[in-house]
Design goal:
Chain lengths: 469, 470
């Protein structure tokens, strides 16, 4: 038998051949394993300087407490501009088909002028602790909310949440308490977070970059430096809109620091012929190309939902990605213009059928106080121009997801009214470790703002899975 | 096998005959006229009473209140610093814009400019429910035995009737400007409804065919049964539609922009191979020089420059809102076009090269027309009304133009249309010239060049007409 064969060799010869062979075999396997680990290409971190003029030698690394303030002068200037606003009447029967309806806009502005209380809203903004710190030459603003009471032995997970455009850190104000003190809100106390919400440079109270080229990769690197400065080695990330791209870059750059990545939006470039084919086939035999029934419901009719709708809704993207300073100029000078431009997105990206309504369905999911507070953040910081420049700076990097993939544990919360639906079968081509993919029952693009509880629950179940609780 | 052969032949012949008939039919269809578009654009319900068809003289006016409101807004303008070394690459440069605003506040004299505007006679008349504004300039003197030829000149966006103020004297009084007075014109420059002093339509769906129909009624009301038309930007499309609606009334069509909206397989093929086999596709040397490298000049350039058209064609009321409320925002938005569409290289200059070809007085007068009339929102709605169903999908896109056509192709126009492509749409092409210099705003930037081209074109058309009569 075969078992007798080795015995036919001389013992010394066996040692002479088998041992080196075994060593080679094990060594080879080790090398393969090591190489396969390194095969996960990480995104290069690089470095940057965004301050005015020449790079300074030493950076002030202090974390300074910060308070949002306002003044009579600021409010009076705003009121004066609201009073002198010039409107053009909408076409008869236009609703929101031509953009923000100016008849409804006048109602919003009347509320803004007479009932909206900016001083009160500033107090609300200041209820969480704000800070600023200088990184790569610019002041980075963030809020840092710790749980008010931590039961003994409770782990507190650090969670960085990144906003997008035309949003801000303020979008997270309703979801933060559900994450930092879940027990107070009817959620289990097994998963508790301390939440950090920065403002992307160029947005809100973060200084705008002075140099060209500030993209999501630079933002990702700066946020890693921020977390490091705050003393965190490992943390969770959450993002939508630009926040999704930035947190994705963070996971691609430093996967060892990212315990988990939770996204409510995925950016996938519609490249391949294969995808086009799967769309055509998927219309008739969805199961063949990996589409679920819910995928089909959300994606079809494909041309209408993914082509026509995107074309109709991407004018802002096109002009901001090519002529941001032109697009932003008037918006920084007219609060009414700024409000129309921003609030139109809160209308259409929350529910695609809202264009048919005379009021754009704005107040069905949001309060005017919340919407206007977000607009005021853009207004008082004069950040609209720098915020839209981000579109031009990122124009070249749109396929970064495919090039590097995501290897950290990832969760996708797919909201039904999101601008575009990406089925799991496409997401998993680049996202290698999807721990959870949830079809959310309701909600649109501004998930944290609109459905904080749903989003919080999904984040918690994801972290539970990763931590194996 | 014999019967199988017959069957095959049968099928083949049917196919060939079928194709011939199909193409014959198709090309016949192309000679169809475009129907006149009836409409009523006034507020609310159309009244039963007859429309007031009188032509009323009009004067542009201003008030102290209007000026002080403007100055207050200029004083409170909020600017954002440009990125270091960005020139006009990110759009309008706010450092340069500050200089313009300072001139606007301290040196620009709107009262004086209003007088300049009023030097030509203005009128208004109600057509299809809205007030149509136009300038009507007759020649000061006519040579013996000659009559003035009516010439309709239509502006575009972000221009206005004011763009023609330099070229009008060259056409109404050529002799005084060193040009031949073989042909003398009386010029009619209307404002497109929704632009300048023409009332904006109150109903949806006012597109280029609507504008052409309104201007057709205008010319008839002025007593012209035969006229010439000239246009660039939206003006090219409106005048082209007019030629398709009323070919028997239009003696000649002159364009400084002609674009191809229906791209077929032959176009794609000619782009791919035209650089190497220009003769095969009818490309002249100048066509090749202006079109290639195609990726840069035909694709990237268009993508970079069409953001405004995309947002205006989808959300005009949103984008126009802030522009109607901030004169500085309006100026930045409009001036950017006068920079980049005059010369694409201007975006690398700190001042956008704006004052190389235009005076600040002229640029600001055009902007003031948008400001004082509050028409920016209605002006950008025109993009949605024309483009919302897609590019090249409308009936008029499929029809050719039978009227004698002349095209002046300026080198810095946003995209170059080669002669061979233009001839497909305008088979009765009498002249096609590659102009030596100039960009999109031809009438304002190179009035002499444009006037000369119009004159030689009209000369050719008139000669042809005489020939036909003989």
């Amino acid at each position: 038998t075969i078992l007798h064969l080795p015995r036919s060799f001389e013992f010394s010869q066996k040692k002479g051949i088998l041992v080196p062979a075994a060593a080679l075999g094990v060594g080879g396997m080790l090398v393969c394993w090591l190489m396969s680990r390194r095969k996960i290409k990480t995104l290069e971190m690089g470095d940057g300087w965004w301050g005015a003029g020449e790079k300074k030698l030493k950076e002030d690394e202090r974390i300074r407490p910060f308070r949002i303030e306002t003044s009579d002068k600021e409010i009076q200037d705003l009121h004066r501009r609201l009073d002198q606003a010039r409107y053009a009447p909408p076409l008869e029967g236009a609703a929101f088909h031509y953009g923000f309806n100016s008849d409804y806009l006048q109602k919003v502005v009347a509320y803004w002028r007479n009932q909206f209380d900016w001083r009160k809203q500033v107090e609300i903004l200041n209820k969480y602790p704000h800070f600023q710190t200088t990184i790569e030459g610019i002041d980075i603003h963030f809020i840092h909310v710790k749980p008010p009471h931590i039961p003994p032995g409770q782990t507190v997970y650090p969670l960085l949440m990144v906003h997008g455009w035309p949003g801000s850190f303020y979008e997270f104000y309703k979801i933060i308490p559900l994450l930092t003190e879940p027990a107070q809100h009817g959620l289990g106390e097994d998963v508790v977070f301390e939440v950090i919400c920065p403002s992307i440079p160029g947005y809100g109270f973060s200084e705008a970059p002075h140099q060209k080229g500030f993209d999501t990769i630079a933002a990702a690197r700066i946020f890693h430096k921020l977390m490091k400065r705050l003393g965190f080695k490992e943390y969770y990330l959450q993002g939508g809109d630009w926040g999704s791209q930035i947190t994705t870059n963070m996971a691609q750059m430093l996967p060892q620091s990212v315990k988990g990545l939770h996204l409510n939006v995925i950016f996938i470039t519609p490249r391949s012929l294969g995808r086009l084919l799967s769309v055509m086939i998927g219309a008739y035999v969805p199961w063949l190309v990996g589409f679920t029934r819910e995928d089909v419901r959300r994606m079809y009719p494909f041309v209408e939902k993914n082509f026509n709708f995107i074309l109709r809704e991407s004018g802002y993207f096109h002009i901001q990605a090519t002529k941001p300073d032109t697009a932003g100029c008037g918006l920084n000078d007219s609060p009414v213009g700024l409000a129309a431009y921003i609030l139109e997105k809160f209308s259409t990206w929350t529910n695609s059928s809202s264009v048919q309504k005379d009021d754009g369905g704005l107040e069905s999911k949001y309060s005017l106080d919340d919407l206007l507070t977000n607009v005021m953040i853009y207004w008082v910081t004069s950040s609209i121009v720098s915020s839209v420049r981000f579109y031009k700076e990122n124009f070249v990097h749109l396929n970064i997801l495919e090039r590097y993939g995501i290897h950290v544990p990832t969760a996708i919360a797919a909201f039904p009214e999101e601008v575009t639906h990406i089925p799991r079968t496409w997401a998993k081509e680049s996202i290698k470790n999807i721990v959870s993919y949830t079809y959310m029952p309701r909600g649109g693009h501004f998930a944290a703002f609109e459905e904080p509880r749903l989003l919080a629950q999904d984040i918690r179940q994801f972290v539970r899975k990763v931590e194996q609780l | 096998s014999y019967s199988a052969g017959i069957m095959l032949l049968d099928i083949l012949v049917t196919l060939i005959v079928g194709t011939v008939i199909y193409y014959y039919f198709l090309s016949r269809k192309k000679e169809e006229t475009l129907p006149f578009k009836e409409g009523w654009w006034g507020k609310g319900q159309k009244p039963d009473t007859e429309e007031d068809a009188t032509i009323r003289p009009f004067k542009v006016e201003t008030t102290e209140e209007e000026l002080s409101d403007l100055f207050r807004r200029l004083d409170q303008a909020r600017f954002t610093e440009p990125l270091e070394n960005s020139c006009f690459q990110y759009g309008i440069n706010s450092v340069y814009l500050r200089k313009v605003v300072s001139y606007w506040k301290n040196q620009f004299n709107w009262k004086k400019q209003v007088e300049v505007l009023n030097k030509y006679p203005h009128f208004k008349t109600k057509i299809q429910g809205i007030d149509i504004h136009f300038v009507h300039v007759k020649p000061p003197r006519l040579p013996e035995g000659q009559s003035a030829k009516p010439l309709l000149m239509v502006h575009g966006w972000p221009g206005s009737f004011f763009e023609f103020y330099k070229i009008i004297p060259l056409l109404t009084d050529p002799a005084s400007h060193g040009l031949s007075n073989e042909h003398v014109f009386e010029v009619i420059c209307p404002s497109i409804p929704g632009y300048g002093f023409s009332e904006a339509p109150h109903k949806k769906d006012f597109n280029s065919v609507s504008a052409a129909s309104v201007f057709y009624e205008l010319m008839l009301r002025l007593g012209f049964s035969e006229f010439y038309a000239q246009g660039g930007d939206w003006g090219w499309l409106i005048c082209t539609n007019l030629a398709q609606i009323a070919p028997n009334n239009m003696k000649g069509l002159h364009l400084n922009l002609a674009s191809v909206s229906r791209i077929g397989f032959s176009h794609v093929l000619s782009v791919l191979l035209g650089r190497y086999l220009p003769g095969l596709f009818g490309f002249q040397d100048e066509d090749v020089k202006r079109m290639y490298p195609f990726l840069e000049k035909g694709v990237y350039r268009i993508l970079r420059e069409s953001g405004y058209a995309h947002i205006q064609a989808t959300k005009p009321d949103t984008v126009g809102c802030g522009l109607n409320d901030s004169p500085v925002g309006l100026a930045g938005y409009i001036l950017e076009k006068f920079s980049t569409w005059t010369d694409p290289e201007f975006c690398n200059l700190e001042d956008g090269g704006l004052e190389k070809k235009f005076t600040l007085d002229d640029l600001l007068t055009n902007i003031m027309i948008y400001w004082v009339s509050g028409c920016i929102v209605s002006s950008v709605r025109f993009y949605k009304e024309n483009l919302q169903k897609g590019i090249g999908t409308q009936k008029h896109d499929k029809l050719t133009v039978q009227v004698p056509t002349g095209i002046a192709s300026f080198p810095n126009e946003i995209m170059h249309t080669p002669q061979a492509w233009a001839r497909k749409k305008f088979p009765n092409m009498v002249s096609f010239h590659y102009m030596p210099r100039g960009g999109h705003f031809a009438a304002l930037e190179e009035p002499e060049l444009l006037a000369e081209d119009i004159l030689q074109f009209v000369g050719k058309v008139e000669k042809q007409q005489l020939w036909k009569k003989k």
